[in-house]
Amino acid sequence: MPEFEMHPVSPKLPAVFLDRDGTLMEEVCYCRDPELVSVFEGVGESLMAIKAAGFLTILVTNQSGIAKGVISPTDYASVHERLLQLLPENCLDDSFMCPDASEAPSPRRKPAPGMLLEAAEQWNIDLQRSWIIGDKDIDIACGVNAGVPGILVRTGHGRHALGEGARHVAESFREATTWLLSHHVEVHFQTDIERSTRR
After folding, report:
1. Is 19 an annotated catalytic residue?
2. Residue 65 sits in a domain of what CATH number?
3. Is the pLDDT of residue 188 over 90?
4. 23: burial class by Cβ within 10 Å (0-12, 13-18, 19+)?
5. Which of 21, 75, 100, 135 is catalytic?
6. Biggest alpha carbon distance in the chain?
7. In terms of residue numbers, what domain contains 60?
8. Global pTM?
């Protein structure tokens, strides 16, 4: 009989999905100038703490200014490169960007879950053990649509967001990280119980 070689299945990893503008860096309307990039205090060390806890860090950002012609893909790339320069090396594992206009139907533009689903497929992510952090209600809704709990930060547009559906509302990214790392196991254990009772 032929022998079949057994290949171990790589375990799925949890991730923290991250909005960019107003979450990691100061909100700048259609930011196209790298010199305007200003990272919030504590973001770099918080991202490293998230990675040290075993999470992937995945940036997911809507950039409708590209569809509107306000910024170019080159502008976006320059701003993104500046962001990486201001953060600790290798603190972001990947980034996904949606250039679609807000008024156009899109499976990728938040609150649609497309970017999260793409990342999950590419990185073998366990969405049920993952999180999303953002400053807009559409970030939280994106997480809900992908089965991922969310944390709203009161920076950027978060000052005026409702926070509906968020597992937690934090004043800053640093505070969001502290809460996440202290509640991750508890929240997902409760979620697993809720799923089992609905079966």
Report:
1. yes
2. 3.40.50.1000
3. no
4. buried
5. 21
6. 67
7. 15-198
8. 0.89
